[in-house]
Fold YtxH domain-containing protein.
Amino acid sequence: MSNRSDNASALLLGAVIGAGLGILFAPHKGSVTREKIKDGFDDLKDQATDRFNSFEEDAMEKYTETKEDLKGTIENLISKTSYKAEETITFLEEKLVELKKQNAKLQR
């Protein structure tokens, strides 16, 4: 992710520098140059907005995936716990039957 961010930053910086140099060396009137600068900043703003929206979508997707994975893990854990609880109850019931038999022998 960091490498992708570094590449995007380098590309954006290159675009800004290239646009700036192109504007500085272009033989246009001031109003045309200002319009080009404004358009350049508008393009940068649009790119930044697009990148933010893309990042937001990726983050929401990861959040949803993680949430679903966690939900599945919890459901699995509850199911296993319930199964183990049932085994424990059955074991205790069997022991109770044995203890009742022993107690009945002792009461004779």
